[in-house]
Design goal:
The protein is an alpha/beta fold. It is 33% helix and 24% strand. A hairpin with a 2-residue loop joins strand 9 and strand 10. The termini are far apart.
Length: 257
């Protein structure tokens, strides 16, 4: 349970460099329990690196990431394992295992942790597939049998298979046509609402950002330059956000940077 008044996720003074390339520069952000926040910014701004730090895939050089008041990079092995079991990721291109059937992909975490039998995993897979509008017989197919849109749906079914407390979404509608993008956004919104999950997303598609977010934070040159409610995205008063959402060549963001 989050302490009263304490954000579930706290990013403070986060920095990360690779040699002389200073990618993350003193980043600070709080996220409340159950909030859906999407991070926007141009390519190379630091979005993906921040995402990896939040998932304990890369350690920052300085600063802290606190989950429920506990420093993510100072957790015991047991605490980290519990955190990993409480979070899920929807990868940009599905991230499905080609050699596993759909139901095995969806139940991969739970079966490998020994938390459930294959029969239980298959039942959960059918339940989650129904949420994303796919029939039970998809369970026995392989990823190569599926279209790109179906693979994305299966990826999302896997992401919610453990009823996560934290849900990380990496470009959830990348490569999809507008109709399928809207469907994926609907599945995300409905499922996140039902789960009460704290959702942190990266997206370059503004329609997706508006559909799945309560709040938006923009990164430029390794720093947060704006943070506000989604309905203020087009009236932020921030020159970086204005240029980005209106797709303008002129502004503080150098074209091609």
């Amino acid at each position: 349970m989050t302490a009263k008044g304490q954000p579930l996720l706290q990013i403070s003074g986060l920095r990360k460099s690779f040699g002389n390339n200073h990618v993350l520069k003193d980043m600070t952000l709080d996220v409340a329990k159950g909030e859906a926040i999407t991070i926007i910014g141009t390519s190379g701004s630091g979005k993906s690196l921040l995402f990896k730090c939040l998932q304990y895939l890369i350690a920052p050089d300085a600063g802290t990431i606190k989950i429920n008041g506990h420093n993510l990079h100072e957790m015991t092995a047991r605490d980290r394992r519990e955190y990993e079991q409480r979070r899920s990721v929807l990868f940009q291109y599905g991230g499905l295992f080609d050699s596993l059937k759909v139901w095995e992909n969806i139940g991969f975490l739970q079966t490998n942790l020994g938390e459930m039998s294959d029969d239980q995993a298959r039942e959960i897979a059918i339940e989650k597939l129904a949420i994303v509008g796919l029939p039970a017989d998809v369970c026995d197919l392989y990823p190569s049998d599926l279209s790109g849109g179906m693979q994305k749906r299966v990826g999302f079914a896997r992401a919610i298979a453990n009823d996560p407390e934290f849900l990380f979404l990496d470009e959830p509608t990348a490569g999809l046509d507008p109709i399928m993008s809207n469907e994926i956004c609907r599945f995300i919104s409905e499922s996140v609402s039902a789960l009460g999950a704290t959702t942190i997303s990266i997206s370059s598609d503004l329609n997706t950002v508006e559909r799945i977010s309560d709040r938006v934070a923009m990164i430029h040159d390794g720093q947060f330059v704006w943070d506000g409610p989604t309905d203020r995205l087009y009236s932020s008063g921030n020159e970086y956000v204005h240029q980005f959402v209106n797709k303008l060549s002129d502004g503080p963001i150098a074209v091609g940077a």
